[in-house]
Amino acid sequence: MQLKFIIYAIVFSLIVVLSNYAVQFSIAGTYLTYGALSYPFSFLFLDILSEKNNRKDVLKVLSLGITIAFIPSLLLSEPLIAIASICAFMISQPLDVFLFYFFKKRLPRLWWLRNNASTIIAQFFDTMIFFNIAFLFEKSFEEVLIMALFDFSIKVLLSIIDTPFFYIFAIRIKNRIFA
Questions:
Q1: How far apart are CA 150 and CA 48, in angstroms?
Q2: What is the DSSP string of 129-166?
Q3: CB 155 within 8 A of CB 39
Q4: Which side of the chain, N or C, has fewer Cβ within a 10 Å radius?
């Protein structure tokens, strides 16, 4: 594996570890956690890499990043949160990459669609898997569902807000940054 992909995997894992730590803390006593603010960057980062690289290399970055993130996540967060995170990542992140390339192949001019649609669909699955594993044994189902819906709503909003950043780093910049 090339050094640049190892560096990408480390950056990705740092986002994951930060998010796994931050999800333990609610914002101003609400159902929303700080993890909802940091985690969407992992999808943006992978989407930028997906725009500039082939699927095989992006999936290698993803696999290595998840592997690197597991032990620090386990040490910095509750074990159930780390396990829930890895379970959710193992489904949602490859789904995001698959959907990104699906939309890119079929609708190549709609760069904003592949960025947003792949992210929003994958984050829905990620959010539901994560919250049901991480908090179901300590909170009521209704509370978990409310937390998940608040979290997902913020992720959708941030996905839309990050669209210009995707455009700048993945579409507009012609040099091979992230490639």
A1: 26
A2: HHHHHHSTTTS-HHHHHHHHHHHHHHHHHHHHHTHHHH
A3: yes
A4: N
pLDDT for 79: 87
Task: Judge contact between 18 and 29, C-beta under 8 A.
Answer: no
pLDDT at 175: 63
Query: For the CA atoms of 73, 20, 156, 130, what is the dihedral angle to 10 degrees?
Result: 80
Q: Tell me what pLDDT residue 179 has.
A: 64
Cα separation, 134 vs 83, whole angstroms:
8
Tell me the CATH number of domain 3-171, given options 3.40.50, 1.25.40, 1.10.1760, 2.70.70: 1.10.1760
Low-confidence residues of the chain: pLDDT under 50: none
pTM score? 0.91
